[in-house]
Amino acid sequence: xxxxxxxxxxxxxxxxxxxxxxxxxxxxxxxxxxxxxxxxxxxxxxxxxxxxxxxxxxxxxxxxxxxxxxxxxxxxxxxxxxxxxxxxxxxxxxxxxxxxxxxxxxxxxxxxxxx
Length: 115
Ligand code: AMP
Ligand code: ZN
Hints:
Shape: globular
CATH architecture: 2-Layer Sandwich
Number of strands: 5
Oligomer: single chain
Strand content: 15-25%
Order of helices and strands: HEEEHHEE
Number of domains: 1
Largest sheet: 5 strands, antiparallel
CATH superfamily: HIT-like
Bound molecules: adenosine monophosphate, zinc ion
CATH class: Alpha Beta
CATH topology: HIT family, subunit A
Number of helices: 3
Structural class: alpha+beta
């Protein structure tokens, strides 16, 4: 837990959030500034800086995060007709919160461009 990390503070319950799904390792919350009707963030409860840090340090939390993406997709009913999952990473990847999180975005037609 880092006092200066926004998502650590959300995990700790110090800041409000709307929880969609939770288990021992991860929590999924609604994005405060959604870009689509469904926009959920899946966070690890432990702090990892990004997907590289997570993948290198915890296979267990990595698997839990992917399992949670699947659960969120079912809960939000976007597994069909589809949705997008992204991990923005680092400055050029557009990451603004340095605590690993998957974006789950859907319920509208998304662009085929990722640029
Ligand atoms: P990224 O730019 O990939 O690091 O994504 C960070 C996301 O966190 C953005 O989509 C923000 O809208 C979202 N966000 C920032 N603060 C909060 C908050 N307090 N609760 C929920 N989502 C947030
Ligand atoms: Zn954190």
